[in-house]
Amino acid sequence: MLVERSTKTKESLKMPADTRDKILQAAFTRLSSQGYENTSIKEIAEEAGVAQGLVHYYFKSKQQLVLAVLMDVCAKLEIYGPELGEAGALAAFENFKSVLRTRRDAHNLYVELIGVGLHDREVGTGIRDDIRRHRGEVEDIARQVLAQREVDPGPARAIASVVWGAILGIIVQSLVDEDFNSDEAVDALAAMALSAVYPGTQSA
User: Fold this and answer.
1) Residue 8 burial (C-beta neighbours within 10 Å; 0-12, 13-18, 19+)
2) Alpha-carbon distances of 89 from 15, 56, 65, 85, rounded to whole Å
3) Is 35 in the same domain as 121?
4) Mind spelling out the 3-state secondary structure of 88-147?
5) Where residue 63 sits, what CATH number does that domain have?
6) CA distances from 2 to 9, 12, 14 (A)
7) At residue 50, what are phi and psi to the nearest 5 degrees?
8) Domain that holds residue 178
9) pTM of the shown model
10) What confidence tens digit (pLDDT) does each residue in 82-125 have?
């Protein structure tokens, strides 16, 4: 009898490989349309077409699920390509303009979770780590551009902080102001950033 029960338990855990992805997509759909506070695990399970217990099997808390959604979305929204140096910086800014136009839902959720993270330690830690990762990627590009110029790479970290802060500001403005010209803002940011890390580029 114990053997039979153990076998059934193992068989019940043999779930489709895409179940976790289905839950993440369902969570993103509900969270981006209803918001963090108005979305329950039960609703996410219904959206995914799975039992509520299955959601808890993969994610022990709502916070863990939300952070997994955040990581999944960010991985799909990467704006950094294979180009290096100035070419890589310009390509990243162009990609950012495209993402601003096409993924308003993702940016809306990201900004909301920043607010949630101010009061929820677990979500806040995840947001902090994600911001640090993105800021580090910007710093890497700044260092590459400075290396092309053969100048001191020291300012790269500070420049990355300012650029990433501006990126977040552009995201917020694009969400709250329908008259905001995000393309124009990104182009201005690109010009200022490259002037800072690559003197003479814009006047050439």
Assistant:
1) exposed
2) 42, 41, 32, 6
3) no
4) HHHHHHHHHHHHHHHCHHHHHHHHHHHHHHCCCHHHHHHHHHHHHHHHHHHHHHHHHHHH
5) 1.10.10.60
6) 11, 15, 19
7) -130, 165
8) 77-197
9) 0.80
10) 677 888 888 889 999 999 999 999 999 999 999 999 999 999 99
